[in-house]
Design brief:
single chain; 411 residues; mainly alpha; Growth Hormone, Chain: A; 2 domains; two-stranded antiparallel ribbon; 15 helices; 2 strands
């Protein structure tokens, strides 16, 4: 098994600067996608739409990111990855600018759909690019650094956007993010080395991968269960804490920031442990996530218990998040980008489904406590599926699986 082929010659310093530029790309993509969450009220008032309609700005971009990515990755399979990422960032910068200047909601929604397609392709190629431009022994660490952009966006980016809006307007906020996207575009173009495309795979072959590759099929099922459970519960953390612990808005904000910090720490820790035992890192992370959910249910009516549960949840989520990317690589090393496009499709679709199912449970099946048990059930299913298939099964009809699913050396 081999990970994405490294680019040589390239200095280690330039490689890590390139990783930083790719991490910044993740930051602007994710904050752009989630920015409306903190701006729903001013958006709805300014555009004369309901809060629910304003929320479709997030849904539209997320769904587009999931459903469009396998096709676009396949159609661009021969495009140099630096050029492709630069193009995606240009689309993001232009989309944010159009959003800032748009006179009406339909144009904003259409723009968000276009940005969603760009965002989905980034998720499929970004980690692979980072792993190719550093020394082989540091590939997993590079992936961890890139994925830390998720926590940075959560802890810093989204609250920052809300603060900017409070002192200016939502249009100014998106205008600033257009400028940030442009700066990241320039950084990628200047720092990231040329990366010829690898693993050229057609659309038919992309969707045929899980049919032919039993190991990848299992990974995707594990991801589906994990994401459904995590986001089904996490989406309703605020109303849960408000109902069970009588939490204030300030407390919820602080505890969610601690969740993000925990996620970053778990991500960095997993960057070291996945090379020793990928399977073990994922299992420990899921056990921690299950423990956190049960702890939240048992002690979440007190602020101290809620803090401990959310920090543990964040740590565990960070470890699982990085592990599932490396599991995809381990399952399909020769077609990593194509496999990641399927991973992205499953992940983004399940974020929307998890939130939808969680909402139905909250409204019709026991209130906010029901989503915690929903998360426990799906996380447990993901864990059992991983434990049941971790050391057995075939990648294909004639290819045995490594005993412990270790991430193979990258060079």
């Amino acid at each position: 098994m081999s990970a994405p082929e490294q680019v040589r010659p390239i200095s280690a310093a330039r490689g890590w600067l390139g990783v930083a530029a790719i991490t910044a790309s993740l930051f602007v993509f994710l904050t752009t996608e989630l920015m409306p969450v903190g701006l729903l009220t001013p958006l709805s008032e300014s555009l004369d739409i309901s809060v629910g309609a304003a929320g479709l700005m997030v849904t539209a971009q997320g769904v587009a990111a999931g459903l469009g990515v396998p096709f676009i990755v396949a159609w661009t399979r021969r495009v140099n990855r630096r050029l492709l990422l630069s193009t995606l960032l240009a689309v993001l910068a232009l989309g944010n600018l159009v959003t800032a200047l748009s006179p009406n909601y339909p144009l904003i929604l259409a723009t968000r759909l276009c940005m969603g397609f760009a965002s989905g392709v980034f998720w499929a190629i970004g980690v692979s690019m980072a792993m190719r431009i550093v020394p082989a022994r540091h590939a997993s660490r590079a992936a961890a650094v890139v994925m830390s952009g998720i926590s940075i966006a959560t802890v810093v980016g989204i609250p920052l956007g809300t603060v900017v809006e409070a002192h200016t307007s939502w249009r100014t906020t998106f205008g600033i993010w257009a400028g940030l996207s442009l700066l990241v575009f320039l950084a990628v173009a200047a720092i990231v080395p040329s990366l010829p495309s690898q693993n050229a795979v057609s659309v038919r072959e992309v969707f045929g991968l899980p049919v032919r590759n039993a190991r990848l099929r299992t990974v995707l099922l594990v991801v589906v269960c994990f994401v459904l459970g995590h986001f089904g519960a996490y989406t309703f953390v605020r109303p849960y804490l408000e109902a069970e612990a009588d939490a204030t808005a300030t407390f919820v904000t602080v505890v969610l920031i601690l969740f993000g910090v925990g996620g970053a720490l778990g991500n960095f820790a997993a960057g070291y442990t996945v090379n020793r035992s990928l399977r073990g890192t994922f299992v420990v992370g899921l056990v921690g996530l299950l423990t956190a959910l049960l702890l939240l249910r048992a002690t979440g009516d007190a602020e101290t218990g809620a803090v401990i549960a959310l920090v543990l949840w964040g740590l565990s989520f960070g470890a699982v998040q990085l592990s599932q990317v490396n599991m995809t690589l381990a399952a399909a090393p020769e077609t990593f980008e194509a496999a990641m496009s399927l991973n992205t499709m499953a992940y983004n679709t399940c974020i929307a489904l998890g939130s939808l199912l969680g909402g139905l449970l909250v409204d019709h099946a026991g209130g906010v406590t029901s989503v915690i048990w929903f998360g426990v059930a799906l996380a447990a299913a993901s864990l059992l599926l991983r434990l049941g298939t971790g050391r057995k099964g075939n990648t294909s009809a004639d290819e045995p699986v490594a005993e412990d699913d270790r991430l193979a050396p990258t060079g």
